[in-house]
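PROTOCOL LOG
Step 1. Enter all chains and additional molecules of the complex.
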Amino acid sequence: MTAKLVVSEHEAAIPERYEQMPCSPCRSVHFQNLMRAKKRTIGPLLIATLGFFTVMTLLAGYAKDFMTIKLIGSMNVGFSLILLAYVICWAGALLYVRAANGPFDAKTKLVIEHDEQRKEP
Amino acid sequence: MKVLTLVIFFIILALTLVVTYWAAKRTNTASEFYAAGGNLSAKENGFALAGDWMSAAAFLGFTGLTALYGMDGSLYAVSALAAFLLILMVIAEPIRNTGRFTLGDVIAYRMRRPEARLAAVIGTTVVNLAYMIPQMAGAGVLMKLLLGIPYSTAVVFVGIGMVVYVRFGGMIATTWVQIIKAVLLLSTAAVIVVWLLAKVGFNPLNLFSAVEDRYGAQMLAPGNYLKHPLDTFSLALSLIVGTAGLPHIMTRFFTVPDAKTARKSVIWLMFLAGSFFVVTTLIGLASAIFVGQDQIRAVDKGGNLALPLLAQYLGGGAGTLGGEIFLAVVCAVAFATILAVVAGLTLATSGTIAHDLYVNVIKKAR
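Step 2. Run joint prediction.
Step 3. Record the structure below.
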């Protein structure tokens, strides 16, 4: 391990950058656009998916009779909800990735481009 | 039997050492040591993440819990997958963008004070020790059971193995040991599931009715293991929030080149580990039916050997050649799992001590 173990370059550069322009990209319209878009997508997705888990685990604790209602053969409501929970996890993850690969990445690109334009002159 | 198990153990051990030797030749810089040079693909990192997350607790623990307590084991398994929703949407990409080698980097980037980094060092070390000790203990029990090596010798042996992997191979070795183990584990699980489904006419519903016939409807109800009504919720909450604080999982995001790859690797993880978690329920129920809860409890009170026992049964039963081969393979995979996860933990801990504590706090990065 002969490498020089120093702080990362960007980390070393932070104090200077921060003093010159306090949080320069954060104030840009493009950055705020990105944050708003992220919140609008991630918020509902997390509430829906993790909300389902909250309801399911509380039902497991407080509604044992409901969880043991049989649906097909010996397969009951509880195990069906668990199976649905897997599907919800996968669907939530794919929906997020679709939003992230499209709108989020496009908006991030704008933030970076405009920040670099500011620095050039 | 002992000879066969020994041979399979040593094949796996030799494979991981070859990987370490190969990785050591490619490890020249700090970035290669801590973060595999930051240029793994989404698929590679996804398999390694899945390997990290399918630890012995999942492989042996989820199946054992389902075998002995029914639904609570399945609830436990699915919560472990939900953890990655939060990581995917909120944590993975910023961590990849602000950190370099350790979680301390991320915290120091935002707070820029040595005290903040010190707090990250303490957090990482405490969490990793708490995670590592049960894994090491598990490896010791497994080796004692299979090879008859005394428990303390086994633990020391595993510990030396970890230090060798991490010291010489760093993150590249840890990643590839993790990938190999993930592939081994998933293939083993696939074979077992197909085999056990063949026994019930390829209809998973038959497993549920067989469990009900033998143990009563109570076995398919929640609350057999987690007694207090809030226990299940509390367990899910701590899994979902707590996983984001596991340093050996979070440092995996430093091994990819950009945020997009970080996000794709979580998707790989969610489908690989998720499919595995689904089938832990089937494996657990099948071991309750074919092996029997009394037999599982007789070997290990916590049920942690339900899966190896099921494999032995599917191979033809105790004393038959097929049964012993299956048992040895499953135990060797479990052993590889523990080796790989402990290697990841060792690397994350050595990163926080060497990079955060020594270089950045004590030496002030000079």
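Step 4. Note key features.
The mean pLDDT of chain B is 88.
Chain B touches chain A through 64 residues (CB under 8 Å).
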